[in-house]
Write a structure and sequence with these properties.
Elements lengths: L2 H15 L4 H8 L3 H11 L2
Helix pairs in contact: 1-2, 2-3
Amino acid sequence: MTLEQAEAVLVRQALAKHGGDLHRAAHQLGLSLEDLQAKMKLLGL
């Protein structure tokens, strides 16, 4: 598994746990909302 794949898994898990709430998922991942959105775009999510 590549780093990008692992990041995608973690982002998907956080989003699923929080019902798609980007703010809560970002908080869980220790990211700002803007950083999470950028990461999602980079990962194609």
